Amino acid sequence: MKLRKKIIIFISFVAILGIGATYLMLHVFLLNRFEKLDKAELERNLSKAVAAYHQELEKLRTGLLDIAVRDETYQFIETAAATGSADSGSTAAAFLRSSLEPTTYPMNHFDMIALLDLGGQPLYGGSYDLPAGTVTPLTQEQLTLIKLIRSRLPVPGTPGESRSGFVNLDKGTMLITLTPILNSSKDKPVIGTAIAGRMLHQDGIAQLWEDTLSTMEMSRLSTPLLADSGGERIWTSPVSGGQMSIHTLLDDLFDDPGMVLTLKEPRQFYNSGMKSLSTFRMFYFISIMLMLGSSILFVNRFILRRMSSLVRNIRMIGSSKDLSIRIPSSGQDEFSEVEVEFNRMIDSLEQTHDELRQQSMLDPLTRLPNRSLFFDKLNEAIAAVKGSDRQIVLVFIDLDHFKTVNDTLGHDFGDAILKETAFRITQVVGRHDVVSRLGGDEFTILLYDVPDEDSIARQLSRIQEALSMPHRIKGHLLYNTASIGISIYPQNGEDADYLVKQADLAMFHVKETGRNNIFQYSEDLEAGIRRKKVLAQQLLSAAAGNEFELHYQPIVSTGQFQVSKVEALLRWNSPSYGNISPAEFIPLAESSGSIVGIGSWVLRQVCADMREFRSRGLELTAAVNISALQLMQPGLLELLLELLDEYELPASSLELEITESVLVSGDGIFLSLQQLRAHGFRISLDDFGTGFSSLSYLRRFPVDVIKIDRSFISEMSREAQGDVLVKAIIELSHNLGLRVVSEGIEQREQFDMLCELGSDELQGYYISRPLQAQALYSFLEQGSYYTRR
Fold first, then answer.
1. Any bridge partners for residue 482, and if so which?
2. d(Cα 265, Cα 39) in Å, to the nearest integer?
3. Can you give the residue ranges of the GGDEF domain (predicted)?
4. Considering just the CA atoms, what is the radius of gyration of the chain in Å?
């Protein structure tokens, strides 16, 4: 996900979270607070309404006191009590006219007035008829109320014993007040009770509560209202129609709950808060959107745009792979610091790249130019001399037996020799000549502008002399030589790779012909090497292509002059070069490893021929050459036993020939020979006397037969001491219990002398050349060296 999208999502998330949190805070806290304020205001107004109710009662009592605490009223009650009637006498008439005339009622908002004596009997009572404007006697309901008051309330005995309240009548609720009747100076005892009442109509309630925002209702207590109260004297009802309602119980004149005062008013704070919140929400939302847009613009302008520019510059440097490009830095912010640090990193990378490029052109051990730099120098030299008569000499050097130093003394000695060799070469070449190490123990020298062959020879002689000097390393004096091949531009080629290849071929020829020499490339050399490569490749498939053929050379036993043994000799007809000498292809097969497969083919073919001979009555033993590689391979014994079993041959039908070089190959060869001999196979040591083996090997190794090499046989003569070496070998072998085979007999004189010296078996062209299997059968039948058994 792009950073731009992430930032937009983050800012939007923060904005939504802020809006949500603000909305929640406003509704949870502010609106709840508004509701509490409305409730508190409603409760205060309820208190005011109750106070207005009591104030109305107080007004009613005050108006009644103006009548009750008069001397005229006192005298009226006193006279009426004395006469027993309130309707007689001038005093009563005067009092009624002055104090209780019809205008007194509406003036004091009275609907009823009653004057009672101390016994509670009404001495005066009047009920005001508002529509008619007249005073009428008390109604029956009013008289019943007076009796109820007389029965339930005590007669006020002191001036302060006034009582006010309401009573529920059939016509409605009446506010009523009671006060004692006293004289104006209040020095006489209470003589009676004055009662005044006013019906509480809706307009009267409206007069009690004149608030325009709220309304007050007074209603009789009912069962539903009691249920809504929950046992409380003050309670509220759920909000309905935007109105809040609060209720309180009012006790009647007799201190019994009888009426509910209800106050209703709109949710002023809540509604005002909602309007404010609506305005605030809109303003807040717009502000958040503006802040969101501003934040995105800010991020896009000062962060993302800078970042995109930085990425473009980095991508441009990466795609161009040019470390010289730098990012222009501007400003003082963090991106400028990144640009500065990136440029600093590019500086470091450029420096490191230059160092690595330089190091990549040098060999880390000798600090000489490596293969890559050498080829660059060689191409430059070829381009410089091209078209002129100047020549370039390419010298290819490979140290002789260097692997032996590493294997025996360790790589520390090897590295020391390589460094010393590099130093010596650089000391004997010219100032403009290039010395390099191609790898391993291979060095090359590029000799510039060598004028003639004598100069080349002198320079190469100095190089060879420097390389042949001994090395003194950690107290060891090590002698080392080198095989050197050269190629010359332009006579040996005009291509760098081709010149190196030609010099390498010349060096390889030196390696194969004895080492420690110098050889220049020639076309004949390349043809010979190419021939070896082709033959080595063809040897891999020669057995499968039926290109091999076995010839057998008879071996005569001197005891009865009979052929009891033959030597199997391999012949190869190459598809490219025709018949190839074993002296050429056997070493190639051993060096390439294909000798193992070829040896298995030979063993199988020999066993097949031996069985064929036996089927014709010829019980012969076949001597088969076994290479060191075959002896070191696991499974040779198992292969031989399997072949003997397959072709139903005894182990004595095979004699395994090995060379002296096999004897010095190690204990593994010794164990292998022991196992072969233990299973009945005879072991023959071929070409004895030409190798470097010690005579002690004849005693130690399990050998049955010694074959004297043809070089000793060819030098035999009838002159004195002409047979001393052969005689010594035969006598030594017999003393060790070994049989002797003399090979390479080409003359009758050699044949006779070997018979006289006691050679057990004879082999050579004098007896017979190697023959094909069919020709051998004919030879044995027709010759004088065979008797059928």
1. 399
2. 10
3. 390-523
4. 71
For 122-268, list the strands marked E by DSSP. 122-129, 134-136, 163-168, 173-181, 192-199, 215-220, 234-240, 243-251, 257-266
CA quadruple 422, 428, 431, 433: dihedral, nearest 10: -70
- Among the listed residues 592, 581, 591, the one whose alpha carbon sits nearest the alpha carbon of residue 541: 592
3-state SS class at 20: helix
Pair 458, 394: CB distance under 8 Å: no
How far apart CA 198 and CA 61 sit, in angstroms, is 11
Task: Kindly give the pairing relationship between strand 482-489 and strand 392-399.
Answer: antiparallel
* Own/partner long-range contacts of 39-43 (Cβ < 8 Å, ≥24 apart): 39/236, 39/244, 41/265, 41/268, 41/269, 42/214, 42/236, 42/244, 42/246, 42/263, 42/265, 43/234, 43/246
Output the pLDDT for position 784. Answer: 56
Q: What is the dihedral of CA 78, 80, 81, 85, to 10 degrees?
A: 180
Q: Three-state SS string across 487-523, please?
A: EEECCCCCCHHHHHHHHHHHHHHHHHCCCCCEEECCH
DSSP conformation letters of 106-118:
HHTT-SEEEEEET
DSSP label at 651? Answer: G
For residue 262, give the nearest of 57, 58, 109, 53 by alpha carbon: 53
Residue with tokens 């929640």: 24
684: tokens are 């023959």
User: Do 314 and 327 contact (CB within 8 A), yes or no?
Assistant: yes
| Rounded Cα–Cα distance for residues 304 and 740 (Å) | 98
Tell me if 675 sits within 8 A of 668, measured CB to CB. no
- pLDDT digit string, tens, across residues 393-412: 999 999 988 888 888 888 88
Report the alpha-carbon distance of residue 217 to residue 173 in Å, rounded.
12
Those residues whose C-beta lies under 8 Å from the C-beta of residue 690, and which sit 6 or more positions away, are 660, 709, 711
Q: Which are the contacts of 169, defined by CB distance < 8 A and separation ≥ 6?
A: 141, 145, 199
How many CB atoms within 10 Å of residue 359? 12
pLDDT above 70 covers a percentage of the chain that reads: 92
Can you say how many angstroms the Cα of residue 616 is from the centroid of all Cα atoms in its chain? 77
In whole angstroms, what is the distance from residue 305 CA to residue 455 CA?
70
How high is the pLDDT of residue 687? 79
Token pair, residue 431, equals 């100032």
Using CA atoms, how far apart are residues 208 and 393, in angstroms rounded to an integer?
A: 134
Burial of residue 172 (CB within 10 Å: 0-12, 13-18, 19+) is middle
Please give the Cα distance from 569 to 624 (Å, whole number). Answer: 8
Tens-digit pLDDT profile for residues 248-294:
998 988 888 888 888 888 887 778 877 877 887 788 788 888 888 88
Whether 660 contacts 687, CB under 8 Å? yes
Q: What is the DSSP string of 171-201?
A: S-EEEEEEEEEB-TT--S---EEEEEEEE--
Residues 705 and 739 sit within 8 Å (Cβ to Cβ): yes
Look-up: residue for tokens 């004598």? 454
What 3-state class would DSSP assign to 380?
Answer: helix
Per-position b or e across 573-610, b if 16+ CB within 10 A of its CB: ebeeeeebeeeebbebbbeeebbbbbbbbbbbbbbbbb
Question: What DSSP line would sit under 604-634, residue for residue?
Answer: HHHHHHHHHHHHTT---EEEEE--HHHHHST
Give tens-digit pLDDT for 563-572. Answer: 989 999 999 9
| Rounded CA separation 582/551 (Å) | 12
Tokens representing 338 are 């990144």
Q: Is 471 exposed, middle or buried (0-12, 13-18, 19+ CB in 10 A)?
A: middle
